[in-house]
């Protein structure tokens, strides 16, 4: 029987415990999109996690679309990330970079006026936030051509190589939450008639090609994947999620990735147990877990580890708090995406937690 505080090996990654920090956009990189000392401090404070997954990070200018989020496509950004990885490693932590392309969820404001790209010319419902934070309707994106697809796959691989050059222990491909890869996966946003659309096999093809290219670039054992089984968020819609994810599991079983992190609300889990049965690799669960539910999932063998999002924003020493049964700090959602130290590096730690 495993518990939350036991180590775990996932490909080339070695977790000292099974409490994972899920990827969290915090928008502190500023207009330059270059990681900075403040971000290094924030991540280093959380180094007791078994694994830190970084905030979503744009793989290319076309993939960008969130004010003050970081990128990993220039030398300056790569050097900035080096500060973060050094600070985490000095605290004996482990950190991987989440590779992000937003597809149709971006906006021309971020793209020098160009239309965002997506599998099909279907706008997401709702509003994007523009460059100055004002709300703007999502636009109808431009349908990706075969050469757009090939370039984007190459961008994922190049960004992964940069991440390793910046000192990350690995990368996580962002295949979740309605961004580009998810837009290919789900039927509501993919109405292509070529080999990337139509059947489940075809809709999964882009994801698999990205996984293969990134694994080739940095090693499968350093390549992880995030998926989400949620309809609604960022206009995702698919009536056959279990079948879709069963096919993903079958395809990925031969690819030896480090792990899959699957986001699915626990209230109506249909995909996570199915994924556990069909996927032979390491499975990390996410969304709404508490200490007790996370421990139960791990001791029962339903999951190998659990990732925490909002609790990690508010509790840099989440592992120590869990270990001691200490109360958790409350999250202040107002400061989630503010540009500054408030609500970022000033959540209190337990008095006896060693100073970060
Ligand atoms: C402020 C904030 C930023 C987030 N940023 C990202 C992100 O960059 N990438 C991602 O995959 N998920 C992101 N998420 C989703 C979280 O990783 C996580 O899936 C979600 O919060 C549910 O887990 P929780 O109940 O433990 O918070 C974000 C969530 C929040 C609240």
Can you give me a brief rundown of this structure?
This protein has 356 residues and is α/β, with parallel strands linked by helices.
Description:
By secondary structure, the chain is α/β, with parallel strands linked by helices. The protein has one domain: Aldolase class I (TIM Barrel). The protein contains 10 helices and 14 strands. It has an 8-stranded parallel barrel, surrounded by 5 helices. A two-stranded antiparallel ribbon has the order 1-2. The protein has a two-stranded parallel sheet with strand order 6-9. Helix 8 links the parallel strand 13 and strand 14. The radius of gyration is 19 Å and the shape is globular. The protein starts with 7 loop residues before the first strand and ends in a 32-residue tail after the last helix. 49% of the residues are buried. Flavin mononucleotide binds at residues 22-25, 55-56, 98, 174, 176-177, 226, 263, 286-289, 308-311, 336.
Count structural domains.
1
Oligomer: single chain
CATH C-level name: Alpha Beta
Mean pLDDT: 96
- The end-to-end distance, rounded to whole angstroms, is 32 Å
Which regions have little confidence, pLDDT < 50, spanning 5+ residues?
Answer: none
- The assigned structural class equals alpha/beta
Morphology call: globular
Order of helices and strands: EEEHEHEEEEEHEHHEHEHEHEHH
Fourth-level CATH superfamily:
Aldolase class I
């Amino acid at each position: 029987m495993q518990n939350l505080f036991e180590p775990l090996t996932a490909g080339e990654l070695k977790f000292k415990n099974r409490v994972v920090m899920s990827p969290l956009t915090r928008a502190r990189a500023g207009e330059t999109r270059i990681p900075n000392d403040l971000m290094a401090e924030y991540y280093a404070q959380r180094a007791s996690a078994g694994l830190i997954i970084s905030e979503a990070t744009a793989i290319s200018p076309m993939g960008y679309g969130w004010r003050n989020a970081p990128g990993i496509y220039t030398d300056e950004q790569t050097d900035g990330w080096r500060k973060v990885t050094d600070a985490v490693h000095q605290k004996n932590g482990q950190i991987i970079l989440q590779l992000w392309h937003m597809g149709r969820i971006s906006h021309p404001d971020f793209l020098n006026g160009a239309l965002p790209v997506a599998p099909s010319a279907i706008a997401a419902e709702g509003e994007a936030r523009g460059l100055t934070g004002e709300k703007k309707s999502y636009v109808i994106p431009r349908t990706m051509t075969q050469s757009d697809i090939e370039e984007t796959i190459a961008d994922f691989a190049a960004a992964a190589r940069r991440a390793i050059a910046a000192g990350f222990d690995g990368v996580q491909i962002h295949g979740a939450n309605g961004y580009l890869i998810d837009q290919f996966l789900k039927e509501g946003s993919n109405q292509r008639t070529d080999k990337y659309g139509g059947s489940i096999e075809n809709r999964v093809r882009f994801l698999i090609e990205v996984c293969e290219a990134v694994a080739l670039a940095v090693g499968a054992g350093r390549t992880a994947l995030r998926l989400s089984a949620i309809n609604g968020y960022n206009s995702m819609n698919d009536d056959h999620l279990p079948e879709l994810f069963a096919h993903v599991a079958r395809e990925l079983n031969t690819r030896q990735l480090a792990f899959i992190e699957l986001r699915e609300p626990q209230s109506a889990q249909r995909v996570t147990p199915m994924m556990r049965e069909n996927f032979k690799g390491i499975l990390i669960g996410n969304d709404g877990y508490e200490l007790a539910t996370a421990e139960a999932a791990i001791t029962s063998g339903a999951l190998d580890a659990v990732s925490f999002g909002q609790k990690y924003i508010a509790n840099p020493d989440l592992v120590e708090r869990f270990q001691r049964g200490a109360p958790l700090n409350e999250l202040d959602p107002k400061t989630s995406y503010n540009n500054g130290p408030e609500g970022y590096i000033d959540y209190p730690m337990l008095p006896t937690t060693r100073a970060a």
